[in-house]
Design goal:
The protein has 230 residues and is of the alpha/beta class. 48% of the residues lie in helices and 10% in strands. The chain folds into 2 domains: 4-24 and 94-229, Rossmann fold (3-Layer(aba) Sandwich); 26-91. β4 (169-173), α9 and β5 form a beta-alpha-beta unit. The longest helix is centred in the middle third of the chain and has 18 residues, at 74-91.
Amino acid sequence: MNSHRILSWTPAAIVFDCDGTLMDTERHWQDARELAMDDYGVRPGAEFAERSKGLHYTECGRLMAAEAGRPELGERLTTALLGHFLDLVARHPQTMPGARELVENAAKFAPLAVASNCPREVVESCLGTAGLRDHFDHIVVPDESNRPKPHPDVYLTAARYCHAAPAETLAVEDSECGVSAAVAAGMRVMGVGPWPGEEVAARVDLWVGSLDEPHVFEWAGERVARRLAV
């Protein structure tokens, strides 16, 4: 990792993932996957949770169907997955540690966007409930012109909307799928969450256990101070 490429640098824009990065919703996706699979009697293998993390929910639906050996269930499992997730996140919205503080500070020195594999209504709802929506200039999700992560499309579009070159943009990600997308987009990457292993960590510029680590808070605070001093 090259932490100095983050901690000694001021990005022209910052693009955040949502699930597991800003919002503690990965647990909701995990619970929703389990509920959807229970609906159809699917029993996943031991590594299913890790393989499904960060995937677009439609890809996850197909993966669950493949896990069951019943590809014809893909559409129904996808619908069940999204329904269970929306119910869970509406009842238990929660920001990740340090996310609120980092977003509030970062918005004072750089344009912000979200690049997520979640449906737009999910991202809008999560950020709105958390009181963070107004800090973001743009939300980019997969659509007809943007393929889902691990393709780089949502990150490239977010940078373009923020009028920033990808190389001058910071991506904040928590999953291997998202890291792959941000790296492919040519961005510098801050990874966050439990240690992902050497292979994934080697692809990012900085990996932190959470966004409330002191050096992350200090980095953002220094850039706010510089902007206010201009």
